[in-house]
Backbone:
């Protein structure tokens, strides 16, 4: 993991050597990375992006979306925390998309010896960029 900031672009720019890795964590009482979900039971999930630690980028909002099952996601008041409830499904895992709201910020990625705006590399929806897709296992 490499992180660079560049005054030439301003404090609202972050340079990354690789795509940031998103970690979904469970809250009390487990505190596990990539926790298992149970059908019909709510789980408090929060998002960690190590590459954004100690930067202004952590303050931006991340939108969590389930893409392959019937899931209720309630956004909580604290930044990047969600209450997740999985409804009956035949799936073995739930896949989540994590959309990062750029809010005027710029993410530059190092590719082919050049710094390229992440908006041109990754899926974009209005001012949100698809920063990662994460799967969580289901258990009975």
Residues:
């Amino acid at each position: 993991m490499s992180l660079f900031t560049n005054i030439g672009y301003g404090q609202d720019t972050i340079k990354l050597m690789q795509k940031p890795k998103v970690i979904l964590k469970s809250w009390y009482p487990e505190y596990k990375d990539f926790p298992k979900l149970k059908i019909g039971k709510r789980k408090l999930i929060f998002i960690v992006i190590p590459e954004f630690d100690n930067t202004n980028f952590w303050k931006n909002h991340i939108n969590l979306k389930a893409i392959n099952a019937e899931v209720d996601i309630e956004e909580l008041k604290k930044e990047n925390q969600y209450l997740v409830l999985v409804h009956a499904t035949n799936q073995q895992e739930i896949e989540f998309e994590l959309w990062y709201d750029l809010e005027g910020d710029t993410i530059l990625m190092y590719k082919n010896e050049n710094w390229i705006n992440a908006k041109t590399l990754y899926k974009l929806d209005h001012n949100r960029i698809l920063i990662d897709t994460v799967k969580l296992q289901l258990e009975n």
